Fold this protein.
Amino acid sequence: MIDVQRLRVLRTVAEHGSFNRAAAVLHLTPSAVSQHVAALERSLGAQVVARSTRGVTLTPAGVIMVGAAESVAAELVHAKQQVDQLGSGRTQITIATFTSGGRLLLPGALARLTADHPDTVVHVREAEPEDSLPLVRQGAVDVAIAYHFDGPLPGRLGPSTGLAWTTLMEDPLHVVLPDTHRLADRTSLDIAELAAEPWVLGCLKTEAYLRRHAERAGFEPEVRGTTTDYFFARSLVAAGVGISLIPSIALTPQITGIRTVPIAPPTPTRHIGVATILRRRHPQVMTLVAALQDPSPTLD
């Protein structure tokens, strides 16, 4: 029989990368943490962490057991939620979303959800994918509207992890320039053509993407403005501070004084989807996911 407390300790060690940091979080001694992990390894007959002077890393067996630990923790959270709902008789659903995706996709979907399930209590929290996806795995949220750039899906998604990923839309990035800019009338632009331009950035992930493509094009972008708000970034573009790279869903509402130009292929694109726990797709979650897939829901 695997001890749940030992799974919790392993999960914390994996999250923090060392026995000492895990001990501080768990209010245990490092020796106690080490003993819990060693006892888990004895019960499994397999090593779950590789120890070194730089900390600890998970072995393949450890990765499996951390996944199990997350599933157990999520089930306990879900059970507590169900107990809480027994008294109220009302189902609760918690949704995590990144800002621009939530602003575009969520209001209409919530209207459909509340029309079909009027007794449902809805909670919404703002979170970027690196935070929202673990919250789904942990059972803290039921649905996460998230995204990833070109490449594989965000880490640890798919049937083997117990999480379902439903694709919602493609969200290509555009160059945003002052409408007086010499390139504002172009029908498309290549990133390499913008090597001499100053930049205003509205998202850390967009910055990372820009820098990666700029490196391939042989230049280092000059950044004159940084913000986590795309509307603010576009306002700075209109003020002449620099140009920006903005996802298509963040191009509204309109701002005067700027022009939007598509990027020539291969166009950088965000892939937006929704993550849910496979075994917990109750009617409210299924309604919400279906509504998110329909950009123009019709309410009867």
Remarks:
- The chain has nine helices and eleven strands.
- The first helix runs from residue 4 to 16.
